[in-house]
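Lecture 7 notes: from sequence to structure.
We start with the chain below.
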Amino acid sequence: MTTLNEHVLNEAGERQDRLTIGQLVTLIERHDGEGGPGVTRDRIMAYAEELSGRGGPVNPDKVETAIDERLAEDDSLSGPVGWTGSASLFGVDDGRVSTFPPSWHEAFSDHSPSVRDIVEFALRDPDSDGNDNGGAGSDEAAGGPAGVPRQVVLNAATLFGGMEWSTAQGELEELRGEGVVVEDLDQHPNPNVRLAEDDGASNHAQE
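Predicted structure tokens for the same chain:
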């Protein structure tokens, strides 16, 4: 009998109709890693069937279609319409799927990154395109530095860095307090994060 993670089941069940296939994959990756990049479709289906059996907001008959509809056509985490977050899924090793593209799994396969490592990688990864349209305060049109949405940073920290969400938030706040990173529009729930050094360079270029 397949053993499933109760935390995944409980958190997914609490989201009710707001649960998306991307969020389900995120939860499985975060709390029930199988020792490789991403998760198998069989594993996702096992969770879907268990959630359905508990009266949860999942129809197992639609899971395969939902996965296929959200599989990205390329390995870019951002594009013309902004950062995808958990809106897209990516094919990784042996038919497994993930909320992050293969390049991210490869970059962090041999170490657990800090939040700063993740921000630096996200802003320089070719599969991220330097696009900052996913969060608040985009200033790319004005020639400002690229940014990465806070939620992308925190999701990556919990997956690749093995951190609790609160720990990742605390580390990000420390970096902001130390002047290492800056965030746009603090009142926005998902502000863009960028390196302060990039922000300063951009400001000098515009003077």
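Points to note: The chain has a mean pLDDT of 81. Residues 41-53 form the longest helix (13 residues).
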